[in-house]
Amino acid sequence: MIAGIVIGAVVLILILWFVSLYNTLQRLETNREQAFADIDVQLKQRHDLIPQLVATVKGYAQQEEKVLTQVTQARARAMSAGTVNEKIAAEAALAGAMSQFSMQMEAYPDLKSNTNFLQLQNEMSDIENKLSAVRRFFNSATKALNVKTKTFPSNIVARMAKISEEPFFDLGVVKREELDEAPKVEF
User: Fold this and answer.
1) How many CA atoms lie within 13 A of 111 on its CB side?
2) What is the CA radius of gyration of the chain?
3) Long-range contacts (CB closer than 8 Å, 24 or more residues apart) made by 59-62
4) Dihedral (CA of 144, 145, 146, 149) sign
5) Quick check: 21 and 157 in contact, CB under 8 A?
6) What is the spatial distance between Cα 176 and Cα 174, in angstroms, rounded to a whole number?
7) How far apart are CA 41 and CA 119, in angstroms?
8) What angle do CA 2, 3, 5 make, to 5 degrees?
């Protein structure tokens, strides 16, 4: 009789432990999804702004058609990406194309003094700042989920629930190379 009660108590504790870990993993996964939804809002604004910026630049920099085409194509791929992981990869490519675009536009002093271009650049800068903030939140949520999926004993429940390690939203290769370079100061 006592052995039956002990076994029943152990089984009950194991079930409660499993349910608790499962719910924690589900909560972490939902937090990550919510964080990406915040990123999606900012990405939509950036995607909406890019055609205006490209149209403004076209009049000044007609010989830069290749760069403008790359930006437009990268934007289209980013907008059509389906999963979170596809969006992360597409946004890294778009960030790289936008970086090339910005570097090319430095060669056009008339463009840099155009009020429409300046306003669009300011809006783009504001969106990039907001994206940076929501990316940090997303990566924090991803880190919490990944720690739980890797550490014992929650990794056992994660495997059973088919919850796996997820990628972070990083800057992409081009942006990372830019950050690795020391800033140039000219007087």
Assistant:
1) 21
2) 23
3) 60/108, 60/110, 60/111, 60/114, 60/117, 61/104, 61/105, 61/108, 61/111
4) positive
5) yes
6) 5
7) 20
8) 65
The pLDDT of residue 166 is above 60: yes
Helices 2-58 and 115-150: crossing angle in degrees, nearest 10, is 160
Residue 33: per-residue pLDDT: 93
- Could you give the dihedral angle defined by the CA atoms of residues 93, 95, 96 and 102, in that order, rounded to the nearest 10 degrees? 150
CA distance 32 to 134: 11
| Mean pLDDT across 120-143 | 91
CA–CA separation, 158 vs 153, rounded Å? 9
Predicted local confidence at residue 60, as pLDDT: 77
pLDDT at 52 > cutoff 60 = yes
Cut 0.90: pTM above it = no
Q: Is the pLDDT of residue 64 over 80?
A: no
CA distance 91 to 172: 8
Whether residue 144 contacts residue 15, with contact meaning beta carbons closer than 8 Å, is answered with: no
pLDDT at 185: 46
Please answer whether residues 50 and 102 qualify as being in contact, where contact means their C-beta atoms are separated by less than 8 angstroms.
Answer: no
Q: Which of 105, 129, 107 is nearest to 117 (CA)?
A: 105
- Distances from the Cα of 187 to the Cα of 52, 106, 176, angstroms: 32, 17, 26
